[in-house]
Design a protein that fits this description.
single chain, alpha/beta, TIM Barrel, eight-stranded parallel β-barrel, 12 strands, 27% strand, globular
Length: 261
Amino acid sequence: MWHELVNLQKNMLAKRIIPCLDIKDGRTVKGINFEALRDAGDPVELGALYAAQGADELTFLDITATLEKRDTFVELVKKIAQHIDIPFTVGGGIKSVGEVAALLAAGADKITVNSAAVYNPKLVTELAKEFGSQCVVVAIDTKLYDNESRVHTHGGKKPTDIGTIAWAQEVYNLGAGEILLTSMDHDGVKNGFACNITRTISELVNIPVIASGGAGNMAHFKEVFEQGKADAALAASIFHFKEIAIPELKHYLHSEHIAVR
């Protein structure tokens, strides 16, 4: 029933623009192909700025939490919630129902799981049952090998033998409320989103698909919404380094007859 409802909404809702803030040691960072990270500012200040500019949602990812086996950033989430009045998703190293409960209690609207879901798929169902599918975003980091897209874990550091499309279908069946699909090949390169695989997955699952990785100009957002059938588009460096302003992006999309909020 939930998925049927989401599918109805998926076809009706305006497209969403979601700035993403990758967090390392309490600072926002951004790299290329998940490497060569550089500082992009204070996450709370940036988040508040994007909210004021008209972002629909925000995503905060503690990108080294899984790798370094650290607890997720509950204190930072509390600070974010005090300064931001739009929905936000948090993730990074989440492995348990208890961690999610703490993050939601701290003020997050949704959480995202990646590596833990790959190694313990039942976690997706447990979280959906405990908190509702609408709170559960499964992040999928994907990279091409021999023309096959494969899932990566641990902040993109560890390749798996799991096919990306098959995994997207599985997490949908397990109860995920959204999929955050990041193309590692496109990440930070600014040559456009991975429209083909985004479209394939979006047409296979009846939940929203958030496209991530590759935004370089405003036309790329139009492409991923029209050609990639994405429900939302997530970007980082173009916002952090003031290459595109959110109000201008939304004005452009309106002018191209794409429904945005």
